[in-house]
Write the structure tokens for this entry.
Amino acid sequence: MEKPRLQTVLCTILVSCVAAGNIVCLADPSEVLFTVDPSRMGVAVPSRFLGLSFEPADVIRDPNILKNRPQIFTIGNCLHNYMKLLQPGHMRIGGLLGDSPRNSSANDPTHIGPLLDFARDIDWIIDWTLRFAPYEPEAAVPTIEYILRHGADLLRFVAVGTEPENYVGQLRRPEGWGKEEHVREFSEYVGVLRRTFPSLRLYGPNMVGNRERLRSSQGWIRFFATAQASQLDALAVHLYPLDWSLPTGDLRSSLCDLLSLETRMATAQVIDDVLDLGRALRLPVYVSETNAGPDTNPAAGYFRTFASALNMLDNLFLMARAGIQGAAIHVGGKTWWHMAPVQMGDWGKGQYPCMIRPLAYSMLLFSVSNPGHFVHSESNQRDMNVHCHAFMNRDGQLSVVLINKDIDRGFNVAVDPGQAHRSASTLILEGAWRSEEARLGGATIASTGEWEPVWGRLEPTDGRLLVSMEAATAILLVFE
């Protein structure tokens, strides 16, 4: 039987008020029933689905302490402590700074040593991106040799370059360089790598996916994937849900647009499109870089908010439920990026504060829920902006994550689990929608990695679990 497309499953009738093209958030509470059928199994979630994406330029070991730079991959720092809270995942090393002379590890692979120690300590694996600008295929060999010699057990995929579709605009390739030139140069890298490391696993093209690029026969991703399918072990793209629509207006209306049913459907359509391409080429699909939105300074404040983190939580479940094999949240250079889930910095003052952003809490809830195999669920109110992801966790327990993406509207939710249960443990993700703070299980995450959540407990009424959801919240239910 053909698997239903995610966008079709999510198709909803939008009855919210629409004014001047902006979704207006309503304020009256509504009743929503989610019915779960554990006998109807869906997609299995791969282990190590959740990942973090770092810049290769961050993989440095600078002996000059006068430069006052904390090392990102240091065992015991706040990033290390936070990542230990998560289920073992994957670290994607790749970004625009990797395609530049600032990527020190390309010239001196010994810089990679601390990264390997860091990953091994927390039991995470690595997807490594080779520098593609400047163009130097032979120079890639020492880097891969070093990784295989010191961390072959950690290496999963190797990529070549990041977002080459932007190279001309970034002056990294001459005017007129395009899809054909990219495929030819990529092939030359592959030739060098395959001759030296025949069992190396490659994925790509690590370009930003949107509907035009994925659907058009002339698009970069489709052109590359079709030409290189025989050389690839997986298809990898970048996904930013507002790549096609930058925030405009005030914070409230912009966040309503970000969290709207329309944006959710558009995101689901892009996920379906890239999966269609992967199925046609018989390649598994990974999202090697994702985050809340595009990297634009005017939009920076929107994507640090708790509301934006709720949206990313929903997107993680959408990707996993559709069949994406892994998704890496990008943290940017030195974790300074305004959209990083964990930010370390203030080097100029010699102090290294650790800021745990709302996005880190969304990732932690996804990880704690530990989805193993999705099961069928449906709603009696498809026009409401509250969503249900139902699955068996890896301990064999029926679990449900409810996400209310309406920043002003609460919902009285009933969950019919489809079979008898005595009770359910609950963990609530909450915070003011415009805030840069969050709590999970009533607790914040300390820079030391300490997190002491308080689990609640609910008992069913007439076989259903009744949940009163505040605006802009998410709840994990684990049935017992």
Summary: Residues 11-29 have pLDDT under 50 and may be disordered. The chain has twelve helices and 22 strands.
